[in-house]
Amino acid sequence: YYDTFLMRYQELAKEKGWSQPLLVALSYSVQILEEGIIPVNSTDVPIDALVTSSGIIPISPAASERV
């Protein structure tokens, strides 16, 4: 559900000339593998940052600039 919503919102923002939103997801720390890898599949919309109980993990350059 969320990936579909995010894809549609990004398309709408592009059509309207809006700036793209910073996409942030919530996660439990145990969902992140030891190597710092976050499991994803082909239908996942890429996120800019991940928020866990351990803190914020910037993923994209846009998130790194804002954190």
From TrEMBL:
Keywords assigned: ATP-binding, Nucleotide-binding
Protein EC: 6.3.3.2
Catalysed reaction equations from the record: (6S)-5-formyl-5,6,7,8-tetrahydrofolate + ATP = (6R)-5,10-methenyltetrahydrofolate + ADP + phosphate
UniProt enzyme class: ligase
Keyword ATP-binding belongs to the record: yes
Gene Ontology terms for molecular function: 5-formyltetrahydrofolate cyclo-ligase activity; ATP binding
GO biological process, one term: tetrahydrofolate interconversion
GO terms under cellular component: mitochondrion
InterPro entries documented for this protein: FTHF_cligase, FTHF_cligase-like_sf, NagB/RpiA_transferase-like
Family: Belongs to the 5-formyltetrahydrofolate cyclo-ligase family.
Protein known as: 5-formyltetrahydrofolate cyclo-ligase
